Amino acid sequence: MKAFRGSTAQMWISTVLRLGLAVVLLWSGGAKVSEPSQAVMAVQAYQILPAGVGEFVGYALPLFELAMGVALLVGVATRITAVVAGALMTAFVVGVASVWARGLSIDCGCFGGGGAVPEGEANYLPVLLRDFSFVAMSAWLVVFPATRWAIDRSGKAGTGDLGLYDEWDDQAESQQGRHRRADDDDRGGYASVEYSDDQVSDQAEEPRL
Amino acid sequence: MTNGARNGDTHDGAGKGSGRQGGKGQGGKRGARDRLAAERAQQAKADGRKRKLSNIAIATVVAVVAVMIIGYAWWASNDDGPTDAALPALVAEPGGGVVVGDGPVDLTLWEDFQCPGCKQFEETNAALVRERVDAGDVTVTIHPLSFLDAKLGNSSSVAAASAFGCAADVGEAEALDFHQTVYANQPAESPGQEAWTTDDLIGWGNDVGIEGSEWESCVTDQTYAGWVEQVAKSQGAANISSTPTVFIDGKTFDVTGDLAAAIDDALKNTQ
User: Fold this and answer.
1) Fewer CB in a 10 Å sphere around the end CB: N or C, chain A?
2) How many domains does chain B have?
């Protein structure tokens, strides 16, 4: 775990998950944003929120999904976006499970469409499994928000992370100079960074100035 | 732990090392390390400021976007459509449905002219509804929604709903006739294509005896498009999650059920 954080493998896995989640959110938001009436129907089919709130959510949700999708796509405020996306996906899991438990027959409206469907046409298990995987992707990004091709990590200082991984940045900055090798790219220094303070004493034993 | 502190630790370690070795010209190297450490600390401080600034900028953008989305959604969900829209003669209030009959049982339909389930409901029940309206049992209120336009990428639902408003200007029987005729001619859903033309709608009116330049211009100009938008906006508050949605005296009716029996039951309750 310690060695994994900041490793090339972690960076690339996180990058793939970040972009994957971005595509999911842009797709789901984009499909819904052009059909607000349908989106409102989709929310109301869950029969969880009161009519007025459901209507508000029907209009707001697609836009929030798009905004989060853009944030993840460009890699800005990745961790906080992943926190919100994970909470949203968890809410979807709970919503779908609740619908299933109550025996309602609806289209989840996850990627456009939505609303009540004839008995027997609803198929909740694949939806739940899919949403679970989105929750898992978000959770991974909350734990390992450092990715390549991200605004968060561009420039010399870690920028645009809303201070949510300052600790990690400090590590990166303090060791960047010592660890930089000729073949490292701009972010190569971060790749060899350890998260724990143990690393500091390791470094003290083998100064590499 | 801050950068400064950590850099200090590292330096101390190195310093002790050189002290033990003693007198091997380490003094110059040590001075260079001090300078480097100081530079690094300064750089870290500058980076910290830069990061703080960019964090504030990002937080501001995030907050502004969030407020805009919430504001828009709040506005959109409370928007009732155009306030000055013309209403068909059989519509009592802005955003209201077309009301036909004056019986004691309230039959309320929420549909979309392009919805296959609505076509099916109409085919099964149109004659019955007509009969019960004529018998004075039922008041039927029809809310023509238009959400399928966005889904199918056309504007046929709005066109038909507006034309339905035009038919409702002519009379109750004409409104029901036109309603039934549009459903009878509803094609299979074909995204990206109009389900019918303006001429189709005008012609279907002619088929049920609605004629004249007023009818034609009303359909062509979509005189009641504003009302159709009001109806669309009223769907949220009515908690409609699919079409057709049918209420009998405010209670949801299973659209695959026996409408005649349900109307009879409701009729008993009113007596």
Assistant:
1) N
2) 2
Give yes or no: residues A55 and A90 share one domain.
yes
Q: Specify the pairing of strand B105-112 against strand B138-145.
A: parallel
Q: How far is A32 from chain B (nearest CA, A)?
A: 10
Q: Which one of B70, B72, B236 has the shortest CB-CB distance to A58?
A: B236
Residues B113-153: tens digit of each pLDDT: 999 999 999 999 999 999 999 999 999 999 999 999 999 99
**Residues of the domain holding B26:** 3-76
A100 and A200 share one domain: no
Phi first, then psi, for residue A152 (nearest 5°) are: -45, -40
For residue B154, being part of any structural domain is answered with yes
Q: What residues make up the domain containing A103?
A: 8-151
Are residues B98 and B142 in contact, defined by beta-carbon separation less than 8 angstroms? yes
Q: In whole angstroms, how far apart are CA A189 and each of A20, A176, A179, B30, B52?
A: 25, 5, 6, 24, 21
Q: Does B41 reach chain A within 8 Å, measured CB to CB? A: no
State pLDDT tens for residues A91-104.
Answer: 999 999 999 999 99
CA distance B129 to chain A (A): 23
CATH of the domain at B255: 3.40.30.10
What predicted TM-score, i.e. pTM, was given to this entire model? 0.78
Give B16's contacts in chain A (Cβ within 8 Å). Answer: none
pLDDT at B16 over 50: no
